[in-house]
Fold each of these.
Amino acid sequence: MEPRLFNLDPQLLHDAVLLAIAVFVMFLFLSYMLFNPAREMLKKRQDKVKDDIDSAEKSREDAAKLKEEYENRLREIHKEEDAILGAARKKALDNEAKIIEDAKAEAANIIARANKQAELEMKKAQDEIKKEIISVAALVAEKVVSDKIDIEIQDSLIDDTLKEIGEKTWQS
């Protein structure tokens, strides 16, 4: 026998080639059966992550738009609020002025009625005083003249007494 290098004989080489082919076929088969599903799963996961990122970006943009719309509506609401408050203040001031005006008119009416009432009371008092003066003058004249004076003389005495007292004296 001849010395062989690494103990290589044709059978061993044949077995090694067949083993290499079998490993290669098995690699292809396992690659198809295991690596392709793993690659597909990784591809799906990568697509899902990309979709999630796109969705998050879109959601962020939508949120920014909603925030801007909200801020615009808030500004409009503040403008409306200021307008409503301004109108309410103006209405309150108008009502205040009207109430004050009505109160002044009512006070003027009350004063006018009080003045009229005072005038009526004064005239009534003047009439009563005039009657009292007349009755006092009649008593005085009656005592002075006693039974001898007739009605004409009595009336003239009353008129004379009134003239002496004066019109202003008994009216004030």
Amino acid sequence: MKFGFIGAGNMVSAIVKGMIAAGYCGKDLYLSSKSFISAKKLAEDCHANACQSSTALIAASDIVVLGVKPHVLAQILPDLKQDFAEKMPLVVSIAAGKTLDHLEDLLPKGIPIVRVMPNINAKIGASATGICCNAVVTDAQKQLVKDIFSTIGTVHEIEETLFSVFSVIGGASVAFAYLYMDALARAALKAGMPKKQALAITAETVKGSAAMILESGEQPWPLIDQVCSPGGTTIEGVTTLQAEGFEAAITAAFDAVLEKDHKIGKPSFPL
């Protein structure tokens, strides 16, 4: 099985390196990029193949991952449509907001397409990745994609009607978590603790809290109740967060990302 990647940015780099770490052979991976420089460097790092053109990459690949920015798809795919038609590979798109219908309009009729949304934590093998497929993708092809993205974290099969929701809670929320941790560490800095130490403690606490949710099966609020002693310190912090609009701010941020994702998915969205 040969794997091609059009684009060689940070996310493709994380995926390729995850695959290599999991035992995929570099000689089975083909890379192309607009300038060729980034593809060549990543290929050298992973002992993979750098292609001078996307046409050559498609001809060599059984699976082609579209790893370019969402607005670039409409620029490059029309010129590659015949190349895809001749090879009919499994196509995987990691472009945010671009629906299966939109991708089908840009690609040959009947080509199998999987839409995928990883997040930046793929760089350390900790992404939560969502996938959905068009009607012609076989179970075996779907499993191939799951296997690829399992090398960079967990994989969740999502109904496409909920894919924009996933893009918020599985993608953009990574930045929300970073922002929360930085704010807490800066507050500790203000109170006299070195920022580096405060950030390490905060990150470990967030990591442990996430593990508690995943491993205990408990819902967040019962766990909050367990932490909050009557008349204690934690309940003061929780009620202050609520009074200052913490939950409302999270919901507003969720809605803003969801709205922008829907806009990006429209063919008329400006480049």
